[in-house]
Amino acid sequence: MSGPDAARARPGRNDPCWCGSGQKYKKCHLDADSRGALQASPVRVARRPLAPGIVSPRRAVPPAVVRPDYAATGRPRGQGRDVKTPEQLERLRRACRAAARVLRIAGESVRPGITTDALDELAHAETIRLGAYPSPLNYRGYPKSICTSVNEVICHGIPDSRPLADGDIVNLDITVYLDGMHGDCSATFLVGEVDAGGRKLVQVARECLEKGISAVRPGRPISDIGRVVEAHASRHGFGVVRSYCGHGIGETFHTQLQIAHHYDPSMRRVMEPGMTFTIEPMITEGTWEDLLWDDGWTAVTADGKRSAQFEHTLAVTEDGAEILTVE
After folding, report:
1. How confident is the model at residue 25 (pLDDT cuts 50, 70, 90)?
2. What's the CATH code of the domain at 130?
């Protein structure tokens, strides 16, 4: 589940570019940003815009399953450490392997006609079978066990009664709490026959995650991650969402550590061995700007165009990154 970030205001044409290049905005990122920011005029989309369905009651968790601190109240406490001990890392690996398994099981069931609520039920059951708690459940009041973000939904889509349609894309965001640790991952799946544009979007989103992981190096600033992600997305004509970001993770679901997926030179914190966080770039066909549904969770693109996302939980090593969310 993505952490929040503050959307960056666009500079004036003659102001220094936000990327830190030293050039004026009009000579640097203005054209790339303008290709995405089409919200000034209505955009016609061939797809029917997504609408909320019926959300089923919260699913039960057996009493024997160990719960995170917010399970009853919805209010998380504490922030946890960003750098883990070897013992903490081993527990985090177990939670991440469980999350990766749940993602695989739920992803194998994606097909036209299945509802996102049914995918939530499958993921919930597998999480419980593994002895884990579904981390999103009642996190700040979130009502379901996973996030299912379809088409123009950027993140935090609530599973409901809407069946997936042929040609949709859907992101399944899975986090589980096991052995006192949260493991977090997501992937975007093609539903039936998806058009070439949708397939390209999903492919580039996957590549953006790979680029971000390749930038993880001890001694380097966290801003390196967003720099390479944004460069790759822009090269293919896609936008990068700025209102939501990756985050530190471990004993707590979200620590104060934030991982921007666009280049933000103010993110100067240096990566160090044992640091754990998610990289989860949200890549859009059009504008990077977002809107929020009345449910307070579902974030959608401001122009109604599609968004795709992939995510891993990582640990910084002595010479790069270890991907933890693998079976």
Report:
1. low
2. 3.90.230.10
For residues 107-121, give the mean pLDDT: 98
Residue 30 has pLDDT above 60, yes or no: yes
Judge whether residue 19 has pLDDT over 70. Answer: no
The answer to whether position 143 is within a domain reads: yes
Q: Does the residue 34 lie in any domain?
A: no
Q: Which of 261, 272, 294, 304 is nearest to 2 (CA)?
A: 261
The pLDDT value recorded for residue 3 is 76
**Could you tell me which of 195, 314, 168, 301 has the C-alpha nearest to residue 240?**
301
Find, among 269, 267, 272, 294, the residue nearest to 83 by Cα: 272
State what percent of residues in the chain have pLDDT above 90. 84
- H/E segment holding residue 290: strand 290-292
**Two tokens, residue 37:** 């920011």
Q: Where are the alpha helices (DSSP H) in 173-237?
A: 196-214, 223-235
Asked whether residue 22 is assigned to any structural domain, the reply reads: no
d(CA 210, CA 93): 19
Q: How far is CA 234 from CA 94, 123, 138, in A?
A: 35, 34, 36
Query: CB pairs under 8 A, 24+ apart, for 231-236?
Result: 231/263, 232/204, 232/207, 232/208, 233/204, 233/208, 233/281, 233/283, 234/32, 236/200, 236/204
Residue 5 located in a structural domain: no
Q: Would you call 29 exposed, middle or buried from its count of C-beta atoms within 10 A (0-12, 13-18, 19+)? A: buried
Residue 130: domain span = 79-323
Distance between CA atoms of residues 249 and 231, nearest Å? 26
Supply angle C-alpha 184, 313, 94, rounded to 5. Answer: 75
Read off the pLDDT of each residue in 304-320 and give the average, rounded to a whole number: 98
* Strands, sheet with 307-309, edge to edge from the N-terminal-most edge strand: 239-240, 282-284, 307-309
User: How many domains does the chain fold into?
Assistant: 1
